[in-house]
Amino acid sequence: MKNVPFSNCFSPVVSQLENNSSQWLGRLPSSPGEIMVGQTFYTPSSGKVGSINVYSEMIQNNGHVTITVHQFDELLHQWGPILGTAVLDVKKQSHPDWLQFEIPEVKLEKNTCYGFRLKSDDALVAVSEVAWGNNNKGLKGEEWSAKNNEADGHYYNFFSLVFQVGLRA
Fold first, then answer.
1. Could you tell me if residue 5 is inside a domain?
2. Under 8 Å between Cβ of 162 and 141
3. Residues 12, 79: Cα–Cα separation, whole Å
4. Where are the beta strands (DSSP E) in the chain?
5. Staple partner for 18: which of 30, 89, 130, 147, CB 3.0–4.6 Å?
6. pLDDT in tens, 32-48
7. Which residues are paired to 88 by β-bridges?
């Protein structure tokens, strides 16, 4: 796995870098609608988000990927209102690489649960994840996925996307 492409002005605060599987994001040719994925996490410190990076195994189709950042209620499994959003133009590629989303001015509070959701109406991306089995190695958060704009989607505490959240220095 390549190093995370953070610039000098971002400090990584939350990360999960293990990888042993992948999950499709976007529009599969054989199925109507799209697959959305996301991840919840806790922040160990306060600060403004600089970027959120998600590792991709490959990009099958060109398109746009939208990320939204939310506060998340883990007890009710409810996404709060959108705190910030970014759109990334992606090009077809067969090698793994980081998708870097620069998020404008979103402040995260220490020890608070947040999450991000990824959606694409036109791209098809294999995003990396880890299946923990019986040991999730201390990451507090859950992977999320939904198909065809399902209202609630599904949460998995034994899976996690490969991601890193960077705060502005």
1. no
2. no
3. 23
4. 10-16, 21-26, 35-42, 47-61, 63-73, 78-90, 97-102, 107-108, 113-119, 124-131, 143-147, 154-156, 159-161, 163-168
5. 130
6. 779 999 999 999 999 99
7. 65
Q: Answer for the pair 82, 69: CB distance below 8 angstroms, yes or no.
A: yes
Give the pLDDT confidence of 8-36 residue by residue, as tens digits: 567 888 989 888 999 999 988 887 779 99
Answer whether residue 138 is part of any domain. yes
Domain count, the chain: 1
- Cα dist. 95→10, 54, 57, 116, 154 in Å? 25, 14, 6, 24, 28
| CATH assignment at residue 85 | 2.60.120
The DSSP annotation for 74-107 comes to: TTTTEEEEEEEEEEEEE--BSS-EEEEEEPPS-E
Q: Could you give the CA distance from residue 110 to residue 96 in angstroms, rounded to a whole number? A: 32
**Contact at 8 Å (CB) between 128 and 57?**
yes
Q: Answer whether residue 2 is part of any domain.
A: no
Q: Give the list of residues 6+ apart from residue 75 with CB closer than 8 angstroms, or none.
A: none
